[in-house]
Amino acid sequence: MNKEEIRNKITKLKKEKNAVILAHNYQIGDVQDVADYIGDSLGLSQKAAQVDAKIIVFCGVHFMAETAKILSPEKTILIPDIRAGCPMADMITASELREWKKNYPESKAVCYVNTTAEVKAECDICCTSSNAVTVVNSLSADEILFAPDKNLAAYVARHTKKKIIPWDGYCYVHRYIKARDIMDKKNLHPQAETWVHPECLPEVIDLADKVISTGKMVQEARKTKKKEIIIGTESGIIYRMKKENPTKNFYPARDAAFCFNMKKIDLGKVLRSLENMIYKVEVPLEVSQKARGAIEKMIEI
Ligand code: 13P
Ligand code: SF4
């Protein structure tokens, strides 16, 4: 089957089964093109809860599909490749978090949305890259355990008076973007602004004009009067930015900043997922209810 035939089959099956396809901003262009909605991790989970469809094909990594399942337990959430996980989310387990909390009885535990459902169930509140500072500042405790991303924790620490105690996790894609890469791109494109994700290293953040989430990057790309922007995050997002803003130029801070986990999903797997109803994402009820509490507390803020 060629791509056109696969796309036609996907469209037909979507209608027959009343399914919706959601794709994260880092997905390959082919997958973004068949998606009903493209967005950031939390935005997509909220979209999953809003849409009428009973079946959601979630093209992203496992914790994102899990968050969608937690917010919409009555829906069938499918992930086209069960191996599409987030290595950073796997850098802390629920039992590690429980043990860590015991050493800091006065503190509150904040979990980035890039965590498993079991970890979310153990924390006081979740956060995303766009609201981490607001979430931390909203808490009554002066001492905050922040997991799993030490780089996002360092960014939050710069914007709060609270003491931030980081877990030793990181995103390999963002850690790979070096200050040298940003300097080289700035030299090549002296008129360009630089936008980076808060999962980047502190010395990369120091060189940025804006430190924003993927969702905010997409919004700012539409709004900005700048014609050239260096993008310090996973390179897949540039496909969407260029498509929506053909007169602007977006340069990846590092040319091959790819999340191989996100890239495990392709058009053929989306079709197979719809045809065979695989792979169903399930979260045990007790874990789901506790994790939902932490996510909803964040949404309230
Ligand atoms: P967003 O929440 O900005 O979509 O980021 C998710 C992610 O995995 C960043 O690496
Ligand atoms: Fe996880 Fe990093 Fe990939 Fe995002 S880019 S899904 S944080 S490994």
Automatic annotation (TrEMBL):
Keywords for the protein's UniProt record, in alphabetical order: 4Fe-4S, Cytoplasm, Iron, Iron-sulfur, Metal-binding, Pyridine nucleotide biosynthesis, Transferase
Reported cofactor(s): [4Fe-4S] cluster
Xref: InterPro entries: NadA, NadA_sf, Quinolinate_synth_type2
Gene Ontology MF terms in the entry: 4 iron, 4 sulfur cluster binding; metal ion binding; quinolinate synthetase A activity
Enzyme Commission number(s) of this protein: 2.5.1.72
BP term (GO), one: 'de novo' NAD+ biosynthetic process from L-aspartate
Pfam families attached to this UniProt entry: NadA
Pathway: Cofactor biosynthesis; NAD(+) biosynthesis; quinolinate from iminoaspartate: step 1/1
Family annotation (PANTHER family): QUINOLINATE SYNTHASE, CHLOROPLASTIC, QUINOLINATE SYNTHETASE A
Name of the protein in its database record: quinolinate synthase
